[in-house]
Amino acid sequence: MADRSLRGMRIGANSMESEQGVEFAPRLQAQYDCPDGHTIILPFSTEADVPVVWECRCGKEALLRDASKPEAKPGKPARTHWDMLLERRTVSELEDLLAERLELLRAGKLRRSA
Ligand SMILES: [Zn+2]
């Protein structure tokens, strides 16, 4: 009796564990508005590129409703090395530095670092 109920517990515990082990990928719901008034809601992985246009069941192009993408982060323009440099120095500072360096170079005071 005691043995049997213990075994039953173990099976139950195991199935609980296997359910907990399943990880769901984060998802967002993309909502599309058809010009005919149809609404399409599609789940996308947050990793996925959500298409801006989806073909509606009536054959028309439904447009992605931006407000329904809470997970989507606003796109940041890519920063170039030049942008990063300008965050630390102004152009006039850079010009001064360049002039200073050129002066040293012309005077033969600059050596390449080994
Ligand atoms: Zn439609």
The total of beta strands comes to: 4
Order of helices and strands: HEEEEHH
User: Counting H and I runs of at least 4 residues, what is the number of helices?
Assistant: 3
Q: Structural class of the helices, strands and pairings?
A: alpha+beta
Low-confidence stretches: none
Keywords: Metal-binding, Transcription, Transcription regulation, Zinc
Family: Belongs to the RNA polymerase-binding protein RbpA family.
Function: Binds to RNA polymerase (RNAP), stimulating transcription from principal, but not alternative sigma factor promoters.
InterPro entries: RbpA_sf (IPR038638), RNApol-bd_RbpA (IPR025182)
List the helices and strands and how they pair.
Layout: H1 2-21, E1 27-33, E2 39-45, E3 53-55, E4 61-65, H2 81-88, H3 91-106
The structure holds zinc ion (ZN).
GO biological process, one term: positive regulation of DNA-templated transcription
Organism: Cellulomonas bogoriensis 69B4 = DSM 16987
Protein name: RNA polymerase-binding protein RbpA
